């Protein structure tokens, strides 16, 4: 028994060096050559960092495309979902409220135009994407507020949208931050 | 829509393409045959020498279990002290506090037992030092513990009669050097170049496009996320696990993470058959497990694609399915696949919030964890399945009126008793635990010790019951996912699930190993016309029936009170 205890302690010490020092340092070194140098890819506008490509942020102004509802208000140091069950009456009231508010800002919409992702909170609370349909319903509002033609905005959405992986697998998405940065750049 | 279903199909296909050769490779590695990774031998010799281990020393099953328990206890003590004092240790750029004793108790057990139930949140509850030196370390070694235990079990059936079952340390070290570490390195690099951070810098701050100040948690997550999946651990670097965009940046990484968590469990099944020279048996086991998986997967995906009926009533278009708690870049289809995979295999990482899944999805998730052996966790999936096999052998023996045999060894009263006790353990822990917590909710809902720092249930009614049932089931299955609405960082849940985790891990390892050890030491009986053959279709169906009947009898009432009741109220 004593032999096992000593062996266990020594083996633990050796493995700590291998698995917790050597292994992550190799990964950290290699990661330094990735797009964001291992710290996450940033998006800049006029030389200023305005966010991370993968981290969604809150958009409420009418001249921007809006992201999904977030149960943590896009707090990127405290991710979280709503964890509301599908039958929870308070939750269903909340969803109804979001529908009403969307209809208020987009009076030209019918309820059946609204895709589910625009009125439900994401899992991480930091979802950077919306569905293509989610972007489509906002085009008219954004175009009006920016005094642009719907066609211009619609073309930009099409350009920014990401299709399925290799054209075959998974959903199509629109990265909200990228789209909004592209919009701002359009103005000049 | 179809692209989403193609995604599931392609991901599973790729899993098999990797897992089957991996199984062949593992059988050779553990049999000590020549393989191309033998260039790593000097590293292993170095590890043995520094640890004072002689890898040629033979152990019987009891010595194996002593070695296993000893090193696991060393990790428990070591990790507990580091977690309690993490605030005073280096590598804490975000200035996060030390853990309370009950949270440290729960967290350390949870990671030692390969569960990774997290009652803390990654961004604010731990430091980079504890993430790497406790959490990630344990993700490697707890997976290796499970694999080594499974190899001991393989060894008992390799030769006709044997008490020498190899050396535990050798199996354990090889699981890391020949399997977990190289694969983790590859996967960590894939993640790093797909957007997961690797640097040790702390939080970042920026001003968003419309002028809000935002703090971003980061940290060297790529190395961690790799072993989290390969080792079927599941604990997240960030609070929301693989739903977090830095932990799982794209549809591509999502598939990588999905493949990673399934390859070793499937490879172990394949390795079993090659190792004991009965390939047909392992294909039969693989078949039962795969059919079981499909039976859980198909209704799960279909219930998610159908969307939430309550939201459908509001007139909203749920083109792609239910979206609450899900991420747009994955979509509901592969998220459903993930939720099946992560619950049948004891990973427990999530890419969506299970609490917000449709009621029937919750039902299938719970069932997957209760059965816990459709592929199952790293190594331990095979051990869990073995218990079902022994019960099936016993019942078949009774039906034909012969002393039951398994692979040429008589199965007698002692082995059956162990198998029966292990079979009863899970329902006992899950149901007694859920009953106790329900009692507290009803009678002590306002007690300070129960609601600090947050009240328990995030949802009323049947769903609230499901939250508690899920937590206990996940603990017992060493799964680690949760209905995360449950306020679980308090004394009751930390202590109660701590015990469930511990018992739910080690007894289901020791039990099967004991049975295998006892059987392996018995005289070998050559096959005759009356032998019950374990590798036939009939016997596989029998095993499948045993799995379904045992679990239905144990859990149906509880499942009815939770997800089923919610389902019927929702569709009415």
TrEMBL record, chain A:
Family statement: Belongs to the KdpC family.
Subunit composition and interactions: The system is composed of three essential subunits: KdpA, KdpB and KdpC.
UniProt entry keywords in alphabetical sequence:
ATP-binding, Cell membrane, Ion transport, Membrane, Nucleotide-binding, Potassium, Potassium transport, Transmembrane, Transmembrane helix, Transport
The record describes its membrane topology as: Single-pass membrane protein
Coiled-coil-forming residues are none
Source organism (scientific name): Pedobacter cryoconitis
Q: Which residue ranges does UniProt annotate as crossing the membrane? A: none
Task: Specify the protein name.
Answer: Potassium-transporting ATPase KdpC subunit
Looking up PANTHER family in the UniProt record yields:
POTASSIUM-TRANSPORTING ATPASE C CHAIN, POTASSIUM-TRANSPORTING ATPASE KDPC SUBUNIT
**NCBIfam families reported in the protein's UniProt record:** kdpC (TIGR00681), PRK00315.1 (NF001454), PRK14002.1 (NF010606)
TrEMBL record, chain B:
Subunit: The system is composed of three essential subunits: KdpA, KdpB and KdpC.
Main location as per UniProt? membrane
Topology in the membrane?
Multi-pass membrane protein
GO-annotated molecular function: P-type potassium transmembrane transporter activity; potassium ion binding
Where's it found, cell-wise? Cell membrane
| Residues that span the membrane, as ranges | 6-27, 67-84, 133-154, 175-195, 258-276, 283-301, 374-398, 418-442, 491-519, 539-558
Keyword set for this entry? Answer: Cell membrane, Ion transport, Membrane, Potassium, Potassium transport, Transmembrane, Transmembrane helix, Transport
Per the entry, what this protein does is:
Part of the high-affinity ATP-driven potassium transport (or Kdp) system, which catalyzes the hydrolysis of ATP coupled with the electrogenic transport of potassium into the cytoplasm. This subunit binds the extracellular potassium ions and delivers the ions to the membrane domain of KdpB through an intramembrane tunnel.
The record's comment on protein family reads: Belongs to the KdpA family.
Q: Which GO terms describe its cellular component?
A: plasma membrane
Gene encoding it? kdpA
Instruction: State the Pfam families in the record.
Output: KdpA (PF03814)
Supply the name of the protein: Potassium-transporting ATPase potassium-binding subunit
